[in-house]
Amino acid sequence: MNxxxxxxxxxxxxxxxxxxxxxxxxxxxGAASTDPSQSGSSYNNANNRPDPFLPVRLKGRGPDPVxxxxxGELHLQGILWHPTRPVAVVNRQRVFxxxxxxxxxxxxxxxxxxxxxxxxxVVLKVDDRQVExxxxx
Length: 137
Hints:
19% of the residues lie in helices and 30% in strands. It has one helix at 3-28; strands spanning 76-80, 87-90, 93-96, 100-105, 108-117, 121-126, 129-134. 8% of the residues are buried. The model has no long low-confidence stretch (mean pLDDT 78).
């Protein structure tokens, strides 16, 4: 082994030792703890500054645009009937009774909740509208 290679190895060993020592100190101070019982962020808003971890919302943009759902985009593909836990298959996604899923349509992503599932039809709450889909034979 030549002298330059030996010096490089020694420098790397020193760096690894220093990093290991830093990690040990950080863990002993609680910085690297993975204990789920410890509290999350301790952000203090004493200076009236916005929380740096929240998404930024631009001022003056106004409300988000309202997108309406074209009911022709929703397709009831099947119903798995069970008296206590029925499931509807809408646009290739399972929707359990009283569960909410997000379905991607041409008009964007929409929140869909099954509020009634019968043997032949399903009543969905799509965003803020109620939509009834009938199973085709």
